[in-house]
Hints:
The structure holds two protein chains of two kinds. By secondary structure, chain A is an all-alpha fold. Chain A contains nine helices and no strands. Chain A has helices spanning 8-34, 42-71, 80-102, 107-116, 118-135, 139-145, 147-153, 156-170, 176-208. In chain B, strands 1, 4, 5, 8, 9, 10, 12 and 13 form an eight-stranded mixed beta sheet that branches. In chain B, strands 3-2-11-6-7 form a five-stranded mixed beta sheet. The A-B interface holds A 33, 38-44, 46, 101-104, 109, 112-113, 116-119, 169-170, 172-174 and B 71, 74-75, 78-79, 83, 87, 89-90, 140, 142, 187-188, 258-259, 274, 277-279, 281-282, 284, 286-287, 289-291, 293-294.
Amino acid sequence: MPLQNIDGRQLVYIKAVVFILGLLPLIRLTWLGFQDELSANPIEFIEHSTGTWALIFLMVTLSFTPLRLISGVSWPLRLRRMTGLFMFFYACLHFVTYLWLDHWFDWNEITKDIIEHPYVLVGFTAFMLTLPLALTSNNPMQRRLGRHWRRLHKSVYLIAILGVVHFLWLVKKDIREPLIYACVLGILFLVRVYFSLRKSVRGRQEEIG
Amino acid sequence: MISANKPDVLPSEITPRSVYENRRQFLKAAGFSLATSAVAGLVPAFALAANNPQKIVDITKTDYGRGEKLTSYKDVTTYNNYYEFGSAKGDPVVHAKLFKTHPWSVEITGEVKQEKRISIEDILKLAPLEERVYRMRCVEGWSMVIPWVGFPLSKLIQHAEPTGNAKFVEFTTLADPQQMAGVRIPILDWPYTEGLRMDEAMHPLTILAVGLYGETLSNQNGAPIRLVVPWKYGFKGAKSIVRIHFTENMPITTWMKASPREYGFYANVNPKVPHPRWSQASERRIGGGLLSPRIKTQLFNGYADKVAHLYTGMDLHKNF
């Protein structure tokens, strides 16, 4: 199967394409902004759009391992750092939009908002948890942290859950859209659980055998 | 006028845009011929509201909202909460295009001398139309300034002749799954209902709006007739009203059913009573662009001098 393995050159091309794809949501927002097409409520539009794309990149990042478990194709895992950083990039834009355009750095209001409103607190916590992951995403840090690196980066699962809860909690009534993310996340988790259970059952069978 | 066999999906969902727009041209043309007959006095121009808003003549200007900067027509007609036509703000303008608002009549029921049905044409004869520029504060934390065209609800109530038992008024929005895609999904308990206490309903600020910006209401804004209560959150303003019911007991409104912890009967704009999930202390005025800060929300949306007395002695935190 040609997709099973790719060489270094091919990977570079694929990474370039993914990089450009990752910038498209920002390019779109900028374009719409210049066209005055960001709806009647442009700040809300940018807040929702950047938040949505952070969530999408998070889901994409979490899908590479299940993909490998199901198909055996493992090279997409090498895109994981880039998609993860795009998640962080859009989460940063989301957070900056909230601080700046939405609240004009009114720290009193912002602090109250974060403390008093669970959906804001959950989103804020998720964002804070992404900081150490982004900061330790380069090779030197990965080497330096060794086995701790893996453990640290497992917090991405928690971030994903918080991200979906943040979305579910802020919607007024029609929760269909956040539920889609909840379902995708649920399926990604189930694939992992299934394969790890299968592995442990097989391991035990071998022990018995 | 469109078809006797109503399809299950809106034509806008299945028809290619070009074809669909041509059809719109046709509908406009049809509207035009009707308008011509209206000039001849056969039907008031009003009733033809349907798909393209028509100019309303003879509007009395008023002092309400003098000096306020109006929200643009485009923003008022493209950023709407009208769940019957979809739950995203941009849905109603698209999905309400073919909504049929003529013929239209409103049922008057409950605690009245005689239950009856009034046609929109007769409703329009009840009182002269006025322009009222009102602030509209949505419970979600944004606001607009809208030049409504309408008349005091009290005029219709006088005509309805409620009995002494009528303590509350309930408004019901049309719920037609054929025309309203949103109604096929149980996001809310359809039909949409709202309510007012009798004194709130009789208050001179409370109007039934039939137009905005000097034209008949666009479909997405609640054509052909809707409620506007400027000191309450926007969701109190029931759209496309088909029934006005007088009752002795406080009606349970749609949003109260949907989430009793979050939405109460009164829904008065109040910066000190937060929504359980978000603050109501400030709001974003639509139309300010990217660099406009939030503005402070005012008690009763700035109409406290005219309405605060209605709630004397009431705990507004409990009666939210």
